[in-house]
Amino acid sequence: MIKEMICISCPMGCHLTVDATDINDIKVTGNTCPRGVIYAKNEIIAPKRMVTGSVRVMGGTIPMVSVKTREAIPKQLIFDCLEQFKGVQLQAPVHIGDVVIPNVAGCGVDVIATKEIEKA
User: Fold this and answer.
1) Which of 9, 39, 48, 75 has the fewest CB atoms within 10 Å, measured from its CB?
2) Is the model's pTM score more than 0.70?
3) Which contacts qualify for 76-85: CB closer than 8 Å, 24 or more apart?
4) Mapping DSSP to helix (H, G, I), strand (E, B) and coil, where does residue 17 land?
5) Would you call 35 helix, strand, or coil by DSSP?
6) What pLDDT digit, counting tens, does each position of 54-84 carry?
7) Model confidence at 14, in pLDDT bands (50, 70, 90)?
8) pLDDT bucket at 6, cuts 50 / 70 / 90
9) What is the per-residue pLDDT across 23-39, written as a single tens digit (0 to 9) for each?
């Protein structure tokens, strides 16, 4: 299997060609840095994504706070992660880096707040 992709690991946006004919010996060309090879192999073997969203804040200066996964999670768990966002209500104050959902979707990654919300 030959696949074309654009690397998103750095601002270069290299156009990669990935030869995954032999899954044990994936060949990557077109990258200008080593991160392109890592990105391409991960995309073929086990794609992951960062997930962002927002959750409710009670008693804050604004009613919602932006959140994100601390690191990328398996792509197939994105909708499970987003579903968990729906039931969350935080109490102000909220600080950047506060754990909002520990171990989201059972994948071992926490969801954290990305904004400061003070009490109203």
Assistant:
1) 75
2) yes
3) 77/104, 77/105, 77/107, 78/49, 78/51, 80/104, 80/105, 81/51, 81/105, 81/107, 81/111, 82/51, 82/53, 84/111, 85/53, 85/54, 85/55, 85/111
4) strand
5) helix
6) 999 999 999 999 999 999 999 999 999 999 9
7) very high
8) very high
9) 999 999 999 999 999 99
Task: Print the SS3 string covering 41-99.
Answer: HHHHHCCEECCEEEEEEECECCCEEEEEECCCEEHHHHHHHHHHHHCCEEECCECCCCE
The reported pLDDT for the residue numbered 31 is 96
Task: Name the strands in the sheet holding 2-6, side by side, starting at the edge strand that comes first in the sequence.
Answer: 2-6, 15-19, 27-29
Burial of 91 (0-12, 13-18, 19+ CB in 10 A): exposed
| Distance from C-alpha of 58 to C-alpha of 94, rounded to nearest angstrom | 10
Distance of alpha carbon 16 from alpha carbon 29, whole angstroms: 6
Q: Which two tokens stand for residue 28?
A: 């990557």
